[in-house]
Amino acid sequence: MCSRFMSTIRHQLPHTMKYILVTGGVISGVGKGVIASSFGTLLNCCGIDVTSIKIDPYINIDAGTFSPYEHGEVYVLDDGGEVDLDLGNYERFLDISLCKDNNITTGKIYKQVIEKERRGDYLGKTVQVVPHITDSIQEWVERVAQRPVKDDKKPQVCVIELGGTIGDIEGMPFVEAFRQFQFRVKRENFCVAHVSLVPMPRSTGEPKTKPTQSSVRELRGLGLSPDLIVCRSERPIGQEVKDKISNFCHVGPEQVICIPDLSSIYHVPLEMEANGVLSFLKDRLQLNIPDPFTKQTMQRWRELANRVDNTRGEVKISLVGKYTKLEDSYASVSKSLQHAAIAAGFKLNLKFIEACHLERNIKKDNQLLYYQAWQELCNSDGVIVPGGFGSRGMEGKIRACQWCRENKKPFLGICLGMQAAVIEFARNIVGCEGANTTEIEKDVKHPLVIDMPEHHTGTMGGTMRLGKRTTIFKENCTSTIKKLYGSPKSVDERHRHRYEINPEYVQRLEEAGMKFVGTDEENKRMEIVELDNHPYYVGVQYHPEYLSRPLKPSPPFMGLILASVGKLKGYLNKGCRLSPREMSDNSSDDDDIPVQTTNLTNGINNIHLNGTATSSSNDEYEK
């Protein structure tokens, strides 16, 4: 009777939140984000609901004003939060929807504490890093960890990634906060995983453990003892090296795991499972995980990883962008293309083309870059023009749009890419000579793209049209993109922009053959544009890459990949399904709309500097 009563009480009590803190040592960019995501994936596959928090020690409030060259792309959440790209990894791996509070920055914490001090919440006390900043960090983590991130279920485990490396002065308050936090939530509910680099210098050819030893020693000196040491290395390390790390870092040999460079990030959760991470977490955090683990536990990830490794065909996509020097600037776009290519049964060959290299006014000493860029573009199966800001490279993007339109090359334009496609069409088909965006040319005669005054407040951070918004499909319109979404009345996608298509030109554009098939709920803002009599020419104002998942590719990206390999028509005719046979068959089924394979010379010489078609001549570049 007593045991039954206690069982009932225990069932009624709310479960205790478990925390996994992921720290990094030696260098930044060692792979903490993927490791943290993989912890969540392992637990998710065992039926445990997981949420994630990313801590960025910089003083910025959020990532919204960063250059893409600083930290890579700015990732946008449903609620409009502009956050670190690692939150994109969490959402993709765990198939969850996070909010802006899942990204903690030093700026946010200090702003919150200072606002409390101004209100008099501290009752005249001296406000200090300890305890006020550290308490604020702990309270923020506990509050956000309780928020549902999928199906309105309260998470059971919170994975926290601490950005930077141990020893950074910016991260000290956070390390101290978690030193206190481990006692606040009790040892059985708190686990530390330290990710460290084990370099293998070519001069010796052997792995070096000293950097990891120093990193762990510093972490322990700050009051946090790692429960797991995740060694990142170029090649697998032997048991002897693991034993050495175990001896010098005060952990058991089974608590040292190695994650070498793998063929794809989808192998990382499988590698961690093979190293016994699930068994360790079950015992360390007292989790209700079935034991023993079977292959079925990670079956979908195993199939995904195998599909990535064993696809035979290749699809070559050219990305015409402005920030191609750092590939992380387009991390979500790259991942979305990969998701769609995997689903279609093809290996993605993604080439980055600097947009300004496609422009005719490129300096003479850079002529080689000009011809190389056009060669890449002409040899591609499909082209994507993503978003961006500013004038640099805009004419190159416009020329890429024109080339795709004229040569029936599958094309997807996102945000600024859509705007470039509309400007190009207005210049060369509608006859709006010199059409442009007011972002670049304030007093342009034909302003095809204009600003949204309510999003030009004079403040840069967090003032764009941000977050998930509804796009309404026009009724009784034949639309490829609508079919790819499953022919719904509307779709919800995430936005990040300050400029829009000028509605005053919409009628003229549509009369010339450009269809605006999706608008906002008030039918004022153009969201989706298409061209008929083209294998795939689509532009979207929103950013579909933010909602793409490894097992649920984004429809616009799926359309681009399928059109690029000649399988889009069959896919649509079969209700947006591909059979396993079709996925392994590399032949094309879209024979009624030929995709031109234009030679390099024609591709370059038939597009004039001002965007108009010209005759092919060898000396036009000099002109």
Which helices and strands, and how do they pair?
Blueprint: H1 2-12, E1 18-25, H2 32-45, E2 50-56, H3 68-71, E3 75-76, E4 82-83, H4 86-94, E5 103-105, H5 106-119, H6 129-145, E6 157-162, H7 172-184, E7 190-197, H8 210-221, E8 228-233, H9 239-249, E9 256-260, H10 268-274, H11 277-285, H12 299-310, E10 313-321, H13 331-344, E11 346-354, H14 367-378, E12 382-385, H15 394-406, E13 411-414, H16 416-430, E14 436-437, E15 447-451, E16 465-473, H17 480-484, E17 490-497, E18 499-501, H18 506-511, E19 514-519, E20 526-531, E21 537-540, H19 555-564, H20 568-573, H21 580-584, H22 600-605
Helix pairs in contact: 2-4, 2-10, 5-6, 6-7, 13-19, 15-16
Plain-language structure description:
The N and C termini lie far apart (95 Å). The longest helix has 17 residues, at 129-145. The chain is globular and about 75 Å long. β8, α9 and β9 form a beta-alpha-beta unit. By secondary structure, it is α/β, with parallel strands linked by helices. It contains 22 helices and 21 strands. α2 (32-45) crosses α10 (268-274) and α13 packs across α19 (555-564).
Shape: globular
CATH superfamily of the largest domain: P-loop containing nucleotide triphosphate hydrolases
Q: Which regions have little confidence, pLDDT < 50, spanning 5+ residues? A: 1-14, 591-623
In what order do the strands lie side by side in the largest sheet?
11-10-12-13-21-20-19-16-17
Structural category is: alpha/beta
Q: In percent, how much strand structure appears in the residues?
A: 15-25%
How large is the count of helical segments? Answer: 22
- Number of discrete domains: 2
CATH class of the largest domain: Alpha Beta
Give me the CATH architecture of the largest domain, please. 3-Layer(aba) Sandwich
Q: What does the radius of gyration come to? A: 26 Å
Biggest β-sheet strands, sense, barrel: 9 strands, mixed
Mean pLDDT: 86
Q: From the structure provided, what is the oligomeric state, counting identical versus distinct chains? A: single chain
Helix content: 25-40%
CATH fold field value of the largest domain: Rossmann fold
Query: What is the end-to-end distance?
Result: 95 Å
